[in-house]
Amino acid sequence: MKPVGTDPRVLSLAAEVAKSPEQNVPVILLKLKEIINTPLRSPELKKIKQDIYCYDLIQYCLLVLSQDCSQIQGGWTTISQLAQILSHCCVGLEPEDAEEFYKELLPSAAEKFLVLGRKLQVCFISAAKGEEKAELLHFFQIVTDSLYWLLGDHVKLIQNVLQSDHFLHLLQTDSVEIGSTVLTLLKNILEINSGDLPKVEGKSLHSILNEVILKLLSTPSPVIRSTATKLLLFMAESHQEILMFLRLNTSEKGLRGLLSKLETGTEFSKELGQLIGLLSPKIYPEVEEQKLHHTACLIQAYWKGFWTRKRLKMLPSAVIALQRRFRSKRTKRLLKLSRQKEEEELRLQLQLQRQRAARLSREIRLSVLEIVHPGQVEKYNWEIEEKSALMIQKHWRGYKERKKFCQRKPSLMEYKAAVTLQRAVLKFLAKCRKKKKLFAPWQGLQELTDARRVELKQQVDDYVRRHQGSQMTYVASRELHAEAQERLQHYFMSRLLEERAQQHREALMAQINTSIEQLMKAPSLKEVEGKDPELFLSRSRPVAAKGKQAHLTTLKHIQEPWWKKLGEEEPGDKIDVPKDELGTLFIGGTKIP
Questions:
Q1: Judging by beta carbons within 10 Å of its beta carbon (0-12, 13-18, 19+), is residue 161 exposed, middle or buried?
Q2: Is there a contact between 219 and 178 (Cβ–Cβ < 8 Å)?
Q3: Confidence band of 394 (pLDDT split at 50, 70, 90)
Q4: Are 180 and 231 in contact (CB under 8 A)?
Q5: To 5 degrees, how large is the angle CA 471–CA 477–CA 480?
């Protein structure tokens, strides 16, 4: 919203800026100097500055200061005058939209002044002629004065300026003129409001102090030395933290000794003596205590940072564990509720079943009482009671025996396991004894004593006397031997024929069993396909099927666990195939001749 009663000069200047091309805007904005330098009373000047701000002429000045110097008509002269105009317009201005003015426009203006100072610093260092350097130094002083004038009215910008990297670069210059001007600016800024100095970040504050100390010790110019000494003395007297920092540097880097070597009898010798007195406390334990306090603070800071980072790393795992426990507890609670619900439903169902059973029993008893003769009711009731008692006894005994069996089941399993182990061990020991006897070395016959020989001879004589055999001639014995040989040959011949016949019978039985089994499994005539008759025409398929079945049985027996074969023979022994499998297997043999 535009203000009412606007100054006609501001209104015409704003219209001219809006209509003019971009290259003519900087020159037109210089007319603001005549407007704000008009000798008017303070309220009227404040009203003019508000009009300038409302018509965005201050923003135009900021935009012009952001442009390249070579593209602006008038060069550094125009830019320095615009910096003065911008500073004067911002001083004493209190616009309606104060938030945008204080948080955006003023910090941007201070930053633009520092950037202009850096550009002028670079141009001053690179300039070759003395006249050009003097002119650039004059422009630089105008810019610093404008910045100082701006900070004098808006002290909150001091912290932003001191933390800016551009200000630190300005302080790090090797030029005596530029360095003296920057140190003077810093001293004037701190004299305006030194309370913002402790609010500056530690890194920026230490860098500024180090640069000031470096200029004091390394620059031969007495002007810079005097300004730096006064600046350090003012900062040390104003703030205890800065004095502690300077004392620590004094103890670690020997700053007090270097300051003592500076020339005496100069203009700033009094301030230098006061600074050395501040840096040289009479009680050295105080310095040591300050160093220890600073070291303890550092250790605490590092430890707290380490512990905080560790806790932050452990936080996801703790959250995951908490979520896992919460979900587990919730799952258990839901499971408990579902079980309770199922138990309640089961209890209700059982209650309903019992009620139905009781109702059905009463109905059956009533129907029976209607059918049975009144004289037979007592007998019928007695039979029903007897059956019920028998049923209850049966169930009770079954429950009792099952309970006893469950109790005896572990002991029965242990007994069976012990029997299996004993059987396997006894079989193993018997095999070991058999092998030991088989491979035992020949020990020869024991020698008989004379008494043993006499005793044995007496026993033989007694046996011969009691069992006297009939005498047989040599011819009779030859005939008996020939007869025995003939019978033995006949027995072996008939045995071979019987074995072949038995084998043939077994083959025929196997064929018959296979055919019967095939017929039993054969489909009905409605379900017969083209390949089914081939199963009855060929003998190879049934034989292969039975062979495959017997082979699978053998493989299954081999693949059983070792503890199931403890009571059986060794793996190298022959495995007995079930007889029902071999009985139905077709075994081809030779026909009976």
A1: buried
A2: no
A3: very high
A4: no
A5: 125
